[in-house]
């Protein structure tokens, strides 16, 4: 009986969803805010449903955000695939920041941006056509 219930619970889950479950325990925060009430020091960027498909036209929303020096950004993965937000120009990371893998329908942990003002490009290491920019000022 228990085996039957377990088997039924996995029938509707695709391979990417099975992989994504449990891969993001260190990144999950439950944060859902667009911009926090702490003076704009935390911003959320959405990875919308369908953004893992290069032909969907979906990308990071918004593609460019502005934060204060040492402010933080949360990437909210609303897609059904794993994603990352990794600083650098696709496909080469520059080590300034990296969310690590963000599971499907999960937010990243807050990622602290550099203290140095400037434009920091980033991309998804799994879907290198997804690109965005964080402006620190």
Keywords:
single chain; 137 residues; mainly beta; Immunoglobulin-like; 5-stranded mixed beta sheet; 4-stranded mixed beta sheet; 2 helices; 31% strand; globular
Provide structural commentary.
The structure is a single chain. With 137 residues, the protein is mostly beta strands. The protein has one domain: Cupredoxins -  blue copper proteins (Immunoglobulin-like, Sandwich). 12% of the residues lie in helices and 31% in strands. It contains 2 helices and 9 strands, in the order ααβββββββββ. The longest helix is centred in the N-terminal third of the chain and has 10 residues. The chain is globular and about 35 Å long. It starts with a helix and ends with a strand.
Strand and helix map with partners:
Blueprint (H helix, E strand, L loop, with lengths): L1 H10 L3 H6 L21 E6 L16 E4 L4 E6 L8 E4 L2 E7 L7 E2 L3 E2 L5 E6 L7 E6 L1
Parallel strand pairs: 1-3, 2-9
Antiparallel strand pairs: 3-6, 3-7, 4-5, 4-8, 8-9
In short:
With 137 residues, the chain is mainly β.
Give me the oligomer status: single chain
| CATH architecture field | Sandwich
Give the radius of gyration: 16 Å
Q: Could you tell me the strand content as a percent range?
A: 25-35%
Number of helices: 2
Under the CATH scheme, which class? Mainly Beta
**Shape, principal axes of CA atoms:** globular
Report, as a whole number of angstroms, the end-to-end distance. 59 Å
State the secondary-structure class.
mainly beta
Q: Numbering strands along the chain, what is their spatial order in the largest sheet?
A: 2-9-8-4-5
- CATH fold name: Immunoglobulin-like
Low-confidence stretches: 1-39
Q: In which range does the helix fraction lie?
A: 10-25%
Return the average pLDDT rounded to an integer. Answer: 80
| CATH superfamily placement | Cupredoxins -  blue copper proteins
Number of domains: 1
Series of H and E elements: HHEEEEEEEEE
């Amino acid at each position: 009986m228990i085996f039957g219930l377990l088997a039924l619970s996995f029938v509707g889950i695709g391979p990417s969803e099975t992989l994504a479950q449990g891969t993001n325990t260190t990144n999950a925060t439950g944060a859902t805010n667009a911009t926090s009430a702490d003076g704009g020091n935390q911003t959320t960027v959405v990875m919308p449903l369908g953004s893992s498909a290069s032909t969907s036209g979906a990308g990071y929303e918004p593609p460019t955000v502005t934060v204060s020096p040492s402010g933080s950004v949360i990437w909210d993965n609303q897609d059904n695939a794993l994603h990352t937000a990794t600083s650098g120009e696709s496909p080469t990371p520059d080590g300034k920041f990296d969310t690590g893998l963000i599971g499907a329908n999960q937010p990243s942990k807050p990622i602290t941006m550099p203290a140095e003002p400037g434009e920091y490009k980033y991309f998804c290491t799994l879907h290198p056509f997804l690109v965005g920019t964080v402006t620190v000022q």
